Amino acid sequence: MTTEMPGPVELVVASANPDKAAEIESILAEALGDAVRLSARPSGISDVEECAETFEGNARLKAAAVTAATGLGSVADDSGLEVDALGGVPGVRSARYAGEGASYADNVAKLLHALSGVLDRGARFRTVAVARFADGRELVCEGTIEGSIATAPRGNGGFGYDPVFVPTEGDGRTFAEMTASEKHAISARGRALRALAARLRDELGR
Which of 3, 48, 137, 150 stands the most exposed, by the fewest C-beta atoms within 10 Å? Predict the structure, then answer.
């Protein structure tokens, strides 16, 4: 008698940012294979106000909202850049550092202005990833990568602060100068999502 393997579990990628959603899908697809089927956030779901004071809080808000709207499990993350000389700023406000509706270039320009003449340019990316199931269960994982802020943008890849973030574990290039696979191998998002994938496999018995 053969035992039929269960089909893939469907998870909705909760991010409304297409760049983040693409990274989440790429990293999880590589880590989970056919154990999970990822689907895009439906366009009709309203934006979630990211009003929590922590990355985990914001990731939970996004995952809970999408699960409530779709009735399906979801995966969300919240990420940000913490700059030592600025007391951890921009932190949870990384996407809105230069104001609501700010572009990536606006945020980078404000950061470089704030660090003008500053020698200690240590920083880190932090990501908290959350998987939420329809029954309310949640899995939470975190990832970080240490680095420093370059004095000017370099590279054409990535998005957000990638052109000015130089990871300590790299070879002196910014994230924007790396290929996607090179970046994902050491990025905070890559680490958080691979840890989440391992938890999901355990949870699903795959």
Answer: 3
